[in-house]
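Much of what follows relies on a compact textual record of a protein's fold. With that in mind, consider the following protein and its fold in token form.
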Amino acid sequence: MKSCIIILVFLCACVSCQIADRRTTSDVHVKQDGRHQPEYYGYEQHCPDAEDIAPCVCTYESFSLELRCSRVESEEQLKQIFKADFPFKNFTHFYFEDNNNIKVLEAGVFNGIGFENIHIYYNDLEVIELQALDSCYETTTDLYLYYNKITSFPFDELSQFSKLSNFALTGNSLSVIPADAFHGLTALEYLDIGGNNADIVGTFQDLPNYYHTCPVH
């Protein structure tokens, strides 16, 4: 009889431990400093802590991981945001729109974070430095830079974008666009460089999938 009781107590203790372990696994959403992280209850957390990347906003829904940074106030703040702890290094979308504060997208600003689709629209952005997009060489398929004030773009690094299929620099302030910079972009299908009043230097070659260009106006 005593043996039965001992076995029963042991089994109950094991069950209690398993329940506690499951509870611990699913409830880990509070950091040691007391700040709450998004509750994911058994699912992997995709976004950084919201307080660490504000005013940028990260969302994850239907397998789409997006980052919106339109309210950033300075180049230094943008760099600091990307020093946060990012659980995932590859995002589906990056949005930066209607911002009058950022004039220069600085080299290495994304600090190793890559994006498949980059949407930079209607800003006062003037300069994109060499290697500003270096973390996106192997991830970006769509790079849209519509209606900014860009006078300087790192055309020399375009050939390193191995997956780039759609590229737009429409409505900026470029004076020269070196067509030779597009050589070797084997995935490029669509190119829009209209609205710059720029001289095109060189020829478009080595673009096996390329089918459409919106020309300079």
